[in-house]
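Input (Thioredoxin):
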Amino acid sequence: MSASIALPSVTDATFAAEVAPGTGHVAVEFTAAWCAPCRIMAPVVEAVAHDYAPRLRVLQLDADANPATLARLGVRGLPTMLVFRDGEIVERVVGAVPAAALRQRLDRVLAG
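Output:
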């Protein structure tokens, strides 16, 4: 397996600009260093970021360091991936899911 890639980060301060109307499809992975399911999903999310670029931009948000965004968007479990189309949530994936299931959901969003 290849070395882990670092996904671009988003924070409470930068979230609105990164996921604003007109930004197209953006997926934000809400994660934390202590979260075992997050570590399981990391290579899957990294592969998705690589394979779906440039149709989908994948960002990562550290849940511990950015609690305001979690509260505002109702994120209660980790990992959670929210997929936005022009600033609006169009898909919510909670927990560690198989790569094929994640890709199926993303394909559906990108096709619509």
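The CA atoms of residues 11 and 112 lie 28 Å apart.
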